[in-house]
Structures are given as structure tokens and as C-alpha cells.
């Protein structure tokens, strides 16, 4: 349809999946009709979701086989509980035997589900180990971050463990979310209602500039699809190899240097000023302009 | 019989009063320029007890410094004032009443001060002459409510006192015209005094005093709607409006009320309406403020002309860069004019569409709620059939035929449409048996219940359930059932006569989305030409500069 542009940010997990993979190719694991719901939420008499807030399955993307999971941010903020976590971990384990071209994690989560905190924490640690194991087996894992909940808490860590991180400007990535920081450290530390500040610090542009996201794309499902397809091609040619000790030490040294260099920075703007000629214009730039500034081909 | 003694009769009392006031104030001014420090003295010198005073301001621009200064005057000297002004929007307007300096008010709209005003009326601290529509109040400035002193706001003045009002000209010409040509006194607050103005909006010899305000006058970004907050229900209603009404009647000249429902329609023009092949066939000429949500339609070439009541914060560069569409001066900036635009909306538009809070079974609608005297603003001027209209258009003629049948004298009718979700915020039903306006009228001793749009002017209601075409109803019973038939699960909707409603549907008086070929599942936010304020900035090519509260970057 004329001008019909499907926003990734606003779409549900199922909509994202159906538009991302080749039409009709998705075979869902543990689909809603199996009703594998959270026993913890049931005990608390809290609302349940028949997929426990995450869709997992096998599909093809540009003809390549992928295993894929999509978190539903509208159910408990995409938070990871026992069943939800087990579905993602199971998907990653399956990758070891099925050997897809890639595993795609469509992350939209505030972290661990507080109603089932212990089970959720264990699930997150299992997912982290599984992500590393899959990559060690030569299969890339891509995180796609562009939903309204972003990737925070344990899922923020999982995101950073992935081989590649694709973000939109609307996507956010961090450890503690702005509201949590404000609650613990006070509004002077982080005003979570200052939306512009929140995005300048946690949003896709800063994460891309710092190298924590590896690709920045427009907030459109086809843009995520194109990026994922490109990455699959790239890793078919060059499968991921586990980092050796020197690489890890080098990365550690870079992070140390960065933490010193920007120790006093209070706002994404100060980081733009260090690295960008037109720092004040960065927030206004389109994704294409921003990527061109980073020296990427359109 | 003795001849009347005309030698004693004086015909220049207004001029002599004016001269006396100017003489009292002369020492405070250098030329026409008065220092901000002397403004309270100036007001005490030129205003007399019992004066009709207009403090310019409407829902956008405000002469806020002059209002604050008036509150600092001596209440024993400036008293019994009669405020005649568009809005009572600032706390200072109400402070003046509480200080006992004002005994009577005639106004249009009180928005943010509606609750305070209601309390003052109930405690009989103030007499309301009448609550008007904008155009009606401007009209009375030239008949029986002419201001003696007008306190106005402009962007800039030169040293002679010429004024530049820029994009936010709004009410200024109407107020100044009435005041200055009837022996009154005009005092202007300006943001800056410059050697050369970009253009002259008000000539110097209509202005008596100019004061540079310590802070620029406040302007509210009232017409900015964040596309991110438009719901899929609003998208559905927008599709119904476009396909079921605009396309059906061929609506080219129109006015949109304020709100998310109409913002959704604006954002569907370059997508949904374009897909229906409606570009150039609908929505080409507007009486409308420069709504940011109209940017994508303008950029898509949908819109030929827009005349505006006022401006909108952040739209200045965009309107200046689109002079083929907006009315702009030789300096390049937009010129608005509320009086002319209200007249344009009343006489030259074929359709008005807007939202409301309550609709009753006769189709009367009101935004009044108990404990708040909010007034009307300009909506009733748009949302009323123009009985004085004599030029025809296809849309107007068709509405006239539908409403009057074939036997009457051929005559058209304006399409007046209410677009509402059946339940509004906090699950309050939009359809009611009896308007709260009745209760408000009783507690506030009003002669009329404050009805925004009268049922006799209303031609269509759009809800998520479909369209009710009230023009085609032939009896009061049919009209009532047509309203109930789109009122959803509200108590009014539940009390519908199912058979009668089905009969109305068969006759096309009620049309459901499926009757118009609209699939509800197609109504997604993905149809919106912009889904965020930032999308609007991109659509404008970076020309739109949204105010801070609408930015998340």
C-alpha cells in the first residue's frame, strides 16, 4: 500500500516475526496452543500469556535457515521468567544440533521478571552460557533491538554477548534502566522522564557510536530484515571464531580507556562532541546521514 | 414646540476623554515608547473606573506582561472594569476579578481557568455578560462592547509604534480596529523594539503606547498532536471519515477541529486517501491553524491553500518555506487573522469536523462539565450551518438535498460532523441522555446551557461503529435511533431499537465500516504517514522545529 511503512518499534512480537522471515516459513516451537504458561504468575493470580511472552521457532530468511526468538514487550515488559527463559535457552541448544545459518534474538525486555526472580535469574545465566556455546560452535547469534522495552538488565548482557547487535534509533540498550537508576540514585543522577536525555544515553545512535551496536537501521521491519540478511551472508562466508586471549585483553584495555575518557560525561552530547564534527546535529540526523558520518556505505 | 437645543449637545466626548487620558500619561512616554518600569503608572493614568478593557489573548498568544501589570494597579483607582476579551486563560485575569477590580466579563473561552471562574460565578463575585464565540465577540466590539482600552501583544515595534505581529497576528487587527477608531487607547507589549520591522501589521497611528516586555509573550503550542499517541480506533474513524464522508461528498474546503481524531485524518491523507485516488479531489483548501500533522499531506501535494487563525509554535520556518500554501507577507513570514479565518470557516468551508465530550439524543453536543465554565472559542462558528451562504458547491448542494428533500426551495447545507469514540477517557460515555451543560447552566445562572454544536446543525456522527447520517432522518424517532445506532456499548447505545437500527442501516442512514468496504483489521498505525513527532520533522525536510515538550531526541 502507498506509503505503508511497518514500524518495528510499534509492532507486536508476532508481527515482527511474520514480516521479518520469508512468508509462511515460520514453524513455531512450543506454540500458544500448548499453553505453556508461567506457574509462578498463576500462583500470584497474575495475567498469563499462552506463549509466556516469547515466540520461538524455525524459519527461513532470504532462503537461509534460522532459529529465531521474539520477545513480546507488551507482556510484562518482555521480562524473562522460567518458561520464557527456557524457551530461549532451548532454542539456542537446538541450534547446536540443527546448525542454522544464524540464531536471531528479537530482544524487547526490561530483564528478569520480578514475580519469579530466582527462576528468571537462573534462566538468564543459562541463556548467556548458551549464546556463547552456539557461537563457539561457529553459528552466529544476532540481537535485534528496536522494541519499546529496549534491552535492559540480564537481556542487556545477553545482547552484548551476541555476535552482532542491530539497533534502531528507538531501540535502547543498557544494564539498569533509567527508572531503576532514578529510583536508586535520585532524579539528579538520571531524570527518567526526560525522554530526550534517556534516548541520548541509551538509544541506538549512542550505542552505535560506541560500537556496542554494530548496525543502526531505520525503525522499519524491512530495514531489520535487510540488515539480518546481510549479516547472514557475511557470516556464511566467515563464520564466527571465539576470541583468543589477546583479543579479550585488547577489548578490556579499550573499555578501560573509554571509561576513563568519558568518566565525567553526563549526556550523549558530550560523547558526540568528542567524536563528531556536527555534534549538535546528531540527534536530528536521519539514520542514513548518521551512518554516512560513520563512514558506512548506504 | 421648542426646537431642540443642539448648541449644548457635544459630539466629541470620546475624543476629549481620550485626550485627557493621553495628557495624564504624556510624561511617562518618550514618543510612544514607555519603559516597563512605568507600565503600572501608565495603566493607572489611562484606564478609568467602569472602562471596558480588552486584554488581548486567546488560546495561543497572550498579552501576559500587561495582564500581570494590571494586577499591580491600585484597586481603589482601577475598579468596576468590564473585561471584553477572547479568553480568560491567565491566572492574572482571574486575579483581577478576585481583587475586586472587575465587575463584569464578556468572553469566549476560559480553558485553564474554567474551574476558578465557576467558583467566582457561584459565589456571585462576578457577573458574566455572555459567553460568546470568537466571531460573535469580535462582532460586538463593533456594536455594543467596544473597548475603551486595549492591551495587546506584538512580536516587535519600531520607534514610531508600527507593530509586527508576525505569524501570530491572531486577534490583534480586530481588537485594534474597534478600539482605535472609536476613541479608545491601544497599548502594545512587544518582545523587541527595532529600527526596521520585517513588515507592518498594525500601523503606528493606531497605537498609542508601546512597551518592551521583560520576557517574550507566551505562546501555547496548542495544535501540536504527537502522532505516537494516535490509537488504532482513531485510525479506523479516520478511514471512515475519508472514505465514508470526504470521498462521498467530495469535500474540498474544510476545517478540522483540534484533537487526535482529526490529526489521524490528516496523517491518513498521503497514505489511505492517496490509495483511494482522492488526491486533488478532497481536502485541497483549508481554514486551519498550521497543524504539524498536516505536513505530510502538504508535502504529498494534497493541499493547495491553508488560511490560519493563529500560528503554531515551531511551524514558523515551515510555513515561511511554503508560501504557495500558507498566507505569507512580503517578509516571508506567515500572517494569521482569527476574525477573517473564523469568517472563512463559517462561510467558505463545506465541512467542519471535530470532537466533543458529550452528545445527547438530539445531537446537541457540549464540552461543558459541572464546576467548569470553559466557554466556546471558535468551534461553533465552524460547526454551524451558514444561513447567509449563497454560493453553491457540489458537497453543499448534496447535503442540502439530503436534509431538505426535493420539495423545498433548493438550498445547500454545511456538513457538520462530530467524530467521537463511544467511550472517552476514564470510560466516560460520549453519548448521554442529558448533557451536563444543563446542570452547569443551573448552578452558574446561565440563560442558555452551553451547547457547542446544536443538534439542528449536526449532520453526521462518526464513531468506531460507523457513520450516522442525520440529514436523511425524517422523524425525531429516526434521528434518535440513528444516534443510538452508532453509540456502541454506552447505555445510550445499548438502549437502541434493534429493528429500527437495522432498518436505518438498510436505508444507508447508518453505515458500518464493512458497508463502506473498510476492513477493521486494516486500521493499523502503519497507515499513518508519520508515527512520531520526529517523523514530522523529517517530512518537513527539517523545517519544523517542535517545542521541547514534544521532543525525545
UniProtKB/TrEMBL annotation, chain A:
Pfam families: Carboxyl_trans (PF01039). GO terms for biological process: carbohydrate metabolic process; fatty acid biosynthetic process; malonyl-CoA biosynthetic process. Keywords: Transferase. The keyword Transferase applies. Its EC number is 2.1.3.10. InterPro entries: AcCoA_carboxyl_beta, ClpP/crotonase-like_dom_sf, COA_CT_N, Malonate_beta. Residues 1-240 form the CoA carboxyltransferase N-terminal domain. GO terms for molecular function: acetyl-CoA carboxylase activity; carboxy-lyase activity; transferase activity. It is an enzyme of class 2 (transferase). NCBIfam families: malonate_beta (TIGR03133), PRK07189.1 (NF005530). This is Malonyl-S-ACP:biotin-protein carboxyltransferase MADC. It comes from mine drainage metagenome. The lineage of its organism: unclassified sequences, metagenomes, ecological metagenomes.
TrEMBL record, chain B:
One of its GO terms (molecular function) is acyltransferase activity. Its EC number is 2.3.1.187. Keywords: Acyltransferase, Transferase. Coiled coil: none annotated. It holds the Pfam family Mal_decarbox_Al. NCBIfam families: mdcA (TIGR01110). PANTHER family: ACETATE COA-TRANSFERASE YDIF, MALONATE DECARBOXYLASE ALPHA SUBUNIT. This is Acetyl-S-ACP:malonate ACP transferase. The lineage of its organism: unclassified sequences, metagenomes, ecological metagenomes.
Amino acid at each position: 500500500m502507498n506509503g505503508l511503512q511497518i514500524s518495528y518499534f510499534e509492532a507486536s512480537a508476532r508481527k515482527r516475526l511474520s514480516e521479518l522471515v520469508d512468508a509462511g516459513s515460520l514453524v513455531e516451537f512450543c506454540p500458544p496452543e500448548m499453553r505453556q504458561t508461567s506457574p509462578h504468575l498463576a500462583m500470584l493470580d497474575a495475567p498469563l500469556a499462552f506463549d509466556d511472552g516469547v515466540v520461538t521457532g524455525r524459519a527461513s530468511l532470504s532462503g537461509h535457515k534460522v532459529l529465531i526468538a521474539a520477545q513480546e514487550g507488551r507482556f510484562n515488559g518482555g521480562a524473562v521468567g522460567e518458561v520464557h527463559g527456557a524457551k530461549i535457552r532451548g532454542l539456542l541448544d537446538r541450534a547446536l544440533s540443527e546448525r542454522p545459518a544464524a540464531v536471531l534474538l528479537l530482544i524487547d525486555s526490561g530483564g528478569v521478571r520480578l514475580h519469579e526472580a530466582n527462576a528468571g535469574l537462573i534462566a538468564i545465566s543459562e541463556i548467556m552460557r548458551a549464546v556463547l556455546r552456539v557461537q563457539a560452535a561457529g553459528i552466529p547469534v544476532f540481537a535485534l533491538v528496536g522494541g519499546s522495552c529496549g534491552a535492559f538488565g540480564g537481556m542487556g548482557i545477553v545482547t552484548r554477548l551476541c555476535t552482532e547487535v542491530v539497533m534502531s534509533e528507538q531501540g535502547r540498550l543498557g544494564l539498569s534502566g533509567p527508572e531503576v537508576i532514578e529510583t536508586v540514585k535520585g532524579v539528579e543522577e538520571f531524570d527518567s522522564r526526560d525522554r530526550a536525555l534517556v534516548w541520548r544515553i541509551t538509544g541506538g545512535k549512542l550505542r552505535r557510536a560506541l560500537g556496542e551496536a554494530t548496525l543502526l537501521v531505520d525503525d522499519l521491519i524491512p530495514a531489520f530484515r535487510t540488515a539480518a540478511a546481510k549479516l547472514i551472508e557475511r557470516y556464511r562466508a566467515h563464520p564466527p571464531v571465539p576470541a583468543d586471549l589477546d583479543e579479550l585483553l585488547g577489548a578490556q584495555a579499550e573499555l578501560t580507556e573509554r571509561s576513563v575518557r568519558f568518566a565525567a560525561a553526563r549526556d550523549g552530547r558530550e560523547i558526540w562532541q568528542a567524536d563528531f564534527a556536527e555534534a549538535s546535529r546528531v540527534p536530528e540526523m536521519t539514520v542514513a546521514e548518521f551512518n554516512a558520518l560513520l563512514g558506512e556505505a548506504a | 414646540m421648542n426646537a431642540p437645543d443642539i448648541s449644548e449637545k457635544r459630539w466629541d466626548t470620546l475624543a476629549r476623554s481620550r485626550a485627557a487620558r493621553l495628557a495624564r500619561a504624556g510624561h511617562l512616554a518618550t514618543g510612544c515608547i514607555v519603559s516597563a518600569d512605568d507600565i503600572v503608572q501608565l495603566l493607572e493614568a489611562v484606564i478609568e473606573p467602569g472602562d471596558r478593557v480588552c486584554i488581548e489573548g486567546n488560546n495561543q498568544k497572550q498579552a501576559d506582561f500587561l495582564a500581570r501589570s494590571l494586577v499591580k494597579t491600585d484597586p481603589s483607582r482601577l475598579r468596576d472594569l468590564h473585561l471584553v476579551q477572547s479568553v480568560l486563560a491567565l491566572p492574572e485575569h482571574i486575579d483581577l476579578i478576585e481583587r475586586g477590580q472587575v465587575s463584569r466579563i464578556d468572553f469566549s473561552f476560559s480553558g485553564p481557568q474554567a474551574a476558578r471562574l465557576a467558583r467566582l460565578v457561584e459565589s456571585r463575585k462576578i457577573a458574566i455578560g455572555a459567553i460568546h464565540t470568537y466571531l460573535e465577540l469580535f462582532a460586538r466590539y463593533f456594536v455594543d462592547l467596544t473597548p475603551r482600552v486595549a492591551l495587546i501583544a506584538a512580536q516587535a515595534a519600531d520607534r514610531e509604534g508600527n507593530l509586527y505581529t508576525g505569524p501570530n497576528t491572531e486577534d490583534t487587527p480586530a481588537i485594534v480596529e474597534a478600539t482605535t477608531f472609536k476613541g479608545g487607547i491601544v497599548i502594545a507589549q512587544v518582545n523587541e523594539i527595532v529600527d526596521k520591522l520585517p513588515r507592518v501589521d498594525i500601523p503606528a497611528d493606531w497605537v498609542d503606547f508601546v512597551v518592551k516586555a521583560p520576557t517574550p509573550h507566551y505562546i501555547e503550542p496548542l495544535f501540536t498532536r504527537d502522532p505516537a499517541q494516535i490509537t488504532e480506533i482513531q485510525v479506523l474513524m479516520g478511514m471512515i471519515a475519508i472514505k465514508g464522508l470526504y470521498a462521498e461528498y467530495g469535500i474540498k474546503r474544510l476545517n478540522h477541529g483540534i484533537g487526535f481524531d482529526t490529526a489521524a485524518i490528516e496523517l491518513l491523507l498521503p497514505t489511505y486517501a492517496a490509495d483511494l485516488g482522492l488526491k486533488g479531489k478532497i481536502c485541497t483548501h483549508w481554514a486551519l491553524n498550521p497543524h504539524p500533522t498536516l505536513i505530510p499531506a502538504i508535502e504529498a501535494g494534497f493541499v493547495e491553500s491553508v488560511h490560519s487563525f493563529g500560528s503554531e509554535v515551531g511551524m514558523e520556518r515551515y510555513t515561511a518555506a511554503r508560501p504557495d500554501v500558507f498566507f505569507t507577507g512580503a517578509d516571508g513570514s506567515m500572517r494569521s487573522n482569527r476574525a477573517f479565518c473564523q469568517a472563512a470557516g463559517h462561510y467558505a468551508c463545506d465541512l467542519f469536523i471535530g470532537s466533543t465530550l458529550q452528545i445527547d439524543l438530539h445531537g446537541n453536543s457540549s464540552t461543558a462539565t459541572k464546576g467548569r465554565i470553559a466557554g466556546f472559542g471558535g468551534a461553533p462558528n465552524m460547526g454551524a450551518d451558514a444561513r447567509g451562504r449563497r454560493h453553491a458547491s457540489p458537497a453543499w448542494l448534496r447535503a442540502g438535498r439530503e436534509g431538505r428533500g426535493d420539495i423545498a426551495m433548493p438550498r445547500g447545507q454545511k456538513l457538520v460532523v462530530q467524530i467521537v469514540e463511544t467511550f472517552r477517557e476514564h470510560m466516560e460515555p460520549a453519548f448521554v441522555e442529558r448533557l451536563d451543560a444543563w446542570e452547569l447552566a443551573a448552578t452558574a445562572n446561565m440563560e442558555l446551557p452551553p451547547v457547542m454544536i446544536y443538534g439542528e446543525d449536526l449532520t453526521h456522527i462518526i464513531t468506531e461503529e460507523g457513520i450516522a447520517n442525520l440529514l436523511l432522518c425524517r422523524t425525531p424517532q429516526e434521528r434518535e435511533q440513528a444516534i443510538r445506532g452508532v453509540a456502541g456499548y454506552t447505555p445510550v447505545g445499548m438502549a437502541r431499537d434493534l429493528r429500527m437500527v437495522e432498518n436505518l442501516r438498510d436505508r444507508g442512514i447508518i453505515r458500518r465500516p464493512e458497508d463502506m468496504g473498510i476492513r477493521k483489521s486494516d486500521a493499523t498505525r502503519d497507515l499513518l504517514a508519520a508515527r512520531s513527532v520526529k517523523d514530522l520533522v523529517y517530512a518537513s525536510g527539517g523545517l519544523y522545529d517542535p517545542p521541547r515538550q514534544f521532543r525525545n531526541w
